[in-house]
Amino acid sequence: MEIWEEKVRRLKKIAWELRKDVIEMIYRAKAGHPGGSLSSAEIISVLYFEIMNIDPKNPAWEDRDRFILSKGHSCPIHYAALAKRGFFDREHLWTLRKTHSILQGHPDMKKTPGVDYTSGSLGNGLGIGVGMALGLKMSNKRSRVFVLLGDGECQEGSIWEAAMCAAHYKLDNLFAIVDYNGLEVDGWLREIMNVEPFKEKWEAFGWKVKEVDGHNIEEILNAFQWAFKVGGPSVLIAHTVKGKGVSFMENEVEWHGLAPKEEEYKKAMEELEKEVLKL
Amino acid sequence: MKKEIATREAFGEALAELGQVNPNVVVIDADISKSTYTTKFHKMFPDRAFNVGVAEQNLMLVAAGLAITGKIVFTSTYAVFASMRACEQVRTFICYPNVNVKIAASHGGIQVGADGPTHQGTEDIAIMRSMPNMKVIHPADAVATKKAVFAIAEDYGPTYLRTMRNPTPIIYDESYKFKIGKGNIVLDEGDDVSIIATGIMVLMALEASKILKEKGIRVKVIDMSTIKPIDSELIITLAKKTGGIVTCEDHNIMGGLGGAVAEVLVENYPVPMKRIGLKDTFGESGDWKELFEIYGLSPKHIVEACIEVIRRKEGIKISP
After folding, report:
1. Fewest CB atoms less than 10 Å from the CB: which of A48, A191, A279, B89?
2. Interface of chain B toward chain A, CB-CB under 8 angstroms
3. Of the candidates A134, A158, A162, which has its C-beta nearest B66's C-beta?
């Protein structure tokens, strides 16, 4: 058995390595969304390298856990994790957003091994997760469905249609995580369209809720254990920093969907490499 | 004529029968299941029937998620909601990933009658037809509807099945063979003009053919129940044989059956053509047969269109 401290260190290191891949991918693609990718790194690391029951050699394995990246624009971090888990060759990462690539600008389940559902248009992943969770239960599968939501997309009405539905059908196999980095394209959520009181909203819709520091591996791990104990539908509200790990991207709204230029790329990679070496 | 049955009701009956033979069929409603006649399926198969309430976007998303776990999913709502409220969900999460969802949509056209334009789906065919991977089917009567339900369940992929609110006469007997993508020649009295119709308009065309016959005009009436993929082969054959075509649909004149037929004709074998349909307008409340008179969908209007097409194909100048 892997001891706890070793596990935490391993998952932390993976998160930082995934961040490096994200910057490399977006730099080479000359386009993409670094901000929300970087804020999701620890969540993705914990899901793909600890929690989820998956088989990279058999991406369509019927008994696997499912993952939907509802905030589809953050796909660079998801692609990086899939490559690291061996769903496809790492070389594909450098073809992001290019013609004939298996890695589309937003996730396409028909093109990318390991992508369980197409996404990119916001507000839709939770409803698809509800359908999957229902279908898996009907087929007597023990698989769990994880949906990673953005905070901005929780302004969409369809999220709350799905939230209502998940609680109504008592979907104990459905788990949502909100990457609550506080920023959307036009600025701070609290200024554009406040989603608060957020925890209370989910509770009012019949969900079990836990708030965590979305960059703290131990907290995320513990929160998932809590979620599995209380069952779904439950949601982890992960407080994060958009652009986390690259000093000049952190909390800067312009880095929602902007590729770094050469100097910025070099500086970002230096900063990230420092973090990797610490672990 | 036999007893009149609404195709929405025939759909509900067929769905319940389908449920008995195919355990993989799942049905989801967004309220209004009493109106779309899925209640029978709900009662018979409560474990395979869901109701998401008045939430059509979620209806389509849940359907998509269920379909990817291997179910044949029928969603059931009205045409206006399926094609517009949930338009993006249908396009991006059902058609783009090409999952096995059958979108049953009642209340197609102004045949809806009294409820008025908010509940009359008059753009749905055009919207659904423009989505890659989507098939669009609009049966003419209760018999065809039942056969279509079984056929689309056998077939893979997204399908839009349009049914009608109000009872209509039965055109077919049980020997009728429905085939996706194939038009059916319902009447073949001669080569003066071909009337290509869909849904209730097949009946209107048959009525029109009687009037035309009295005038010495012999026509073919075709039930084009599949609007996508359109039966190009049949359309070209008809154009060559009759040299003139009239299309009839209870739908906006843009982008629907008339549009689909015109696309085939102009690229393959252009002949004089007229389209019967709503002339880029909304409907209103009222008895549907009266509405058909007002909005130009009655047999009388089809007769006029046929005569005009015949004159044009014979090179006779029509006075304005």
Report:
1. A191
2. 26, 47-48, 50, 52-53, 55, 57-58, 60-71, 88-89, 92-93, 96-98
3. A134
